[in-house]
Amino acid sequence: MPRLPTDRLKRRWTARGRKDDRPLVIAGKTGGALTLxxxxxxAATLGLVPGKALADSRAxxxxxxxxxxxxxxxxxxxxxxxxxxxxxxPLVALDPPHGLFLDVTGVTHLFGGEAAMLAEIRHAxxxxxxxxxxxxxxxxxxxxxxxxxADGTIVMPxxxxxAVAGLPVEALGADHSIVHALRRAGLKTIAQLAGRxxxxxxxRFGSAFVTLLDCTLGKAEAPISPRTPVPDCRAERSFAxxxxxxxxxAATILSLAASLAAVLEKRGEGARRIEACFFRADGQMRxxxxxxxxxxxxxxxxxxxxxxxxxxxxxxxDPGFGxxxxxxxxxxxxxxxxxxxxxxxxxxxxxxxxxxxxxxxRFGAHRIARFLRQDTxxxxxxxxxxxxxxxxxxxxxxxxxxxxIPQRPLRLFARPEPIEVTAEIxxxxxxxxRWRRAQHAVACAEGPERIAMEWWRTQEHQPTRDYYRIExxxxxxxxxxxxxxxxxxxxxxxxxxxxxxx
Amino acid sequence: MEEISRKLAVLRASLVxxxxxxxxxxxxxxxxxxxxxxxxxxxxxxxxxxxxxAGAAGHEAAASGFALALAAxxxxxxxxxxxxxxxxxxxEAGEIYGGGLLELGLDPARVLMLRVPDAEGALRAAGDALDxxxxxxxxxxxxxxxxxxxxxxxxxxxxxxxxxxxxxxLLRMNVEPAPxxxxxxxxxxxxxxxxxxxxxxxxxxxxxxxARNRHGPLGRWMMEWDCDDRVFKKxxxxxxxxxxADRSAQAALDGARAQG
Lengths: 502, 260
What we know:
The complex is a heterodimer. Chain A folds into four domains: 4-69, MutS, DNA mismatch repair protein, domain I, CATH 3.40.1170; 89-216, no CATH class; 233-361, 2-Layer Sandwich (Dna Ligase, domain 1); 411-501, no CATH class. Chain A is an alpha+beta fold. In chain A, strand 15 and strand 16 (477-483) form a beta hairpin. The relative contact order of chain A is 0.06. Chain A is elongated and about 95 Å long. Chain A has helices at residues 4-16, 41-45, 54-60, 71-85, 114-127, 140-149, 160-164, 176-184, 190-194, 198-205, 207-216, 246-267, 299-312, 347-363, 379-382; strands spanning 24-30, 33-39, 65-68, 92-95, 99-102, 233-243, 269-280, 285-296, 323-335, 368-373, 383-387, 411-423, 430-435, 438-451, 465-472, 477-483, 494-501. In chain A, the strands form five sheets. Chain A has a six-stranded antiparallel β-barrel. Chain B has helices at residues 2-17, 24-27, 34-39, 60-74, 87-93, 98-103, 119-129, 151-163, 248-259; strands at 28-29, 44-45, 49-54, 80-86, 95-96, 111-116, 135-141, 167-172, 184-190, 205-213, 219-226, 231-234. Chain B starts with a helix and ends with a helix. Strand 12 of chain A pairs antiparallel with strand 5 (95-96) of chain B.
C-alpha cells in the first residue's frame, strides 16, 4: 500500500468532514533533517517523492499540507488491514512498513481464480479509501518487487526470473546503502544482477542479500511468518446481508460449531481452544476465543461457552453495520476419547469440568483455581492455586493426623501484615501485639517453628522466620512470625501476622 | 398413635421409592453434636441455604472455619466443594490456604476456588454452581453488605440448592444479619481454648449460636471440630472461663420468641 499514511489521514478527515485540497505529504526526521516519508496522489503528480527533503519540497510547492509521521498509528492500521485480510487466507504476514503478504496457495479457486481474487481484493481495499498495488507470484520477495513496479502482475510458477528481470535494483527492497553501491557499480536492473556470480555478490553485500536475490528470482523460497497461528480446522459462513442481531450470531456459532464437530469427530479429536473471528462489513475484525480444560467438540457446549464469553466482555462485541463473515477455528486439538484431565470419568465430574470452563469463560481462566501442593517448606509456596483448567490430577498426601492440633492456618494473607509486638525477651514469644489498630493480649503461645528461606533459590539473603501459634484472650488464633533471628541476623527483627486459624 | 406413625413411615418410604423425595440420608447430614442435631431435627439439611455470620469483627477466620466444617459435613464422597470469594474479602480476612484445609480434615484436591471481583459476580456464579450435579457444597463469601444479597436472592439460592441437592453456605463477614429465606443461620465467635494442659490448646473451637432455624428451636453451644473424624463434638474439658457457656434451653426460649 504505497500511500498508507496519507490515506489514513484522508480517511479520518473525510469522516470528520474536514476538507483540504492541498497536496498532502508526511514528513519524518531522518538523520537530522525532515524528509518526506509519504506523499498523496496529488503531491506525487507534482513531482514529490518520498525521500525528498521537506525544505526542497516547500520550495517547489509553497502551498503544501505537511503532517508529522506517526509510525505507531500506521502500524496499527496495517495490523487492522491484516486482520481483515484473514477473510481470504489464514496466512497473512506483515511486511513493514506498508505492505502485507497473503499466502493464497490453494485458496484462489474459492474466489474464482487468481485474477478474480486479485480484482476482488483490489476492489475491496480501494473501496475503503486505500491505494493498493498487488502482485501474485511464487515467492513473497518476487511478489513484493512486482507489486511496486508492475502492479497487477500474476506470475506463473517458475517464471519469476523473467518477470522481474526488467525491474530496477530498488525493487529488491534491499538496504539503501546496497542499492546505492549497486548503482555505482553500474548494475541497474535485476537482470544485470542475476548474471553476476553469487560469490562475488556475497563477498561484497553479504549472504542475506544473495538469498533475497534468489527469492526474488524464484530460485529460493523464504516462508512468510503468519501473524496468528493457523487453526487446525475451521468453519466459516459469509452473509450476503450483514447480520446484526444476537440471535443470528448465536445461531451461526451453533451451526459452525456443528460443522467443526463433524470434522473433529472424524478425527476422533476435540479442541481446547476455539476462536471466533467476526469480520465487520466496514473492515474491522474482532477475535474472541474460549479455552477449555478438556478437549470439547459438542456444539451446544461450544455455543454456551461463547454466550458466556460474549456476555462477560468488558468491551462488548459491536456489530457496527453488521458482520458479513463469521469464522470459527479450532486449535490445540487433541484426542477426545481419553479424559484430558485426571477427573474420574463419571457423569457428575464431567459436570464439574463443564462448570469450570463456564466460569473460566465468564471470569477469566486465572480466577477459577485449584490447589497445587509443592515440595517446599515456605508456607505460601507449599500450597499455591493454579488455574483449574490447566491442573493435572494430583493426589494430596494424606498426612496421618491422629488428633494433632492444626499447625497451619485456614486463612493466609498474601502479603503478611506488619504488627507491633511486645515480648518479654527479644527472642521469645510475644506478650501482646497491635494489629490493625487493635491490641491483642496473648493468652497462649506456641513456638517458635523455625522456617529458613531457601538460600539455594535466590541470591539475596532472606531472613529466617520464627513462627508462633498464638491465641488471644478472646479465643482468636493467629499465626505470627518474626522476620529474622534476633541479634544473629538483625538488630530489631520485625513481626508479621501471616495467617488466621479457625 | 403408633398406627399413624407407622403409616407415615410407610408413606415416606413409598415417596422415596417413587423418587418423589430423597431418602433421609441424602437429605440430612448430622453434625455429630447431639444437642444441635436435636434442634435441627436430625442434622443439617442438604440442598438448602445456610448462613454463617462472623459474630464480630476479628472473628472472620472462625466463621470461615465453621462454614468449612458445615461443608465438610454435607459433602459426600466424590463430590466437590466450590468456594466463591470476593476479591476484597481476601485482603481483609486472608486467602483460603490449602494447608489449612488439609489440617481441618478436608482434601484440597477436591476443592475449587473461584475469585470474583464483586458481589454480583459471586451471586451469578453461585446460581450456576448450584446447578452442577458434581458439587456437594458451595460456599459463597461476599464481603460487607452488598445490596444484591437480599431476601429475593436468598430465596433464589434456596430453590437452586434444592434442585440438585447441592448445599449452599453463605459466609457473611462485616455485616449485620438481615431477613432471609435461609434454612439456618449461625453466629460464630472464636472460643478461647479451655485452660488445662499447656500443650493441648488451639483446636478449632467455636462459640456457635443458632440464630435462625426454620424447623425447630434455637440454641447456643461450644462446638469443637474434630479434624480427624470430621464431626463436631463437645470439648473434652470443662469450660471454666467466662466465655458463653452451654445455654441451649434459654436460647431456645429466646429464639422462639424472636421467631414468633
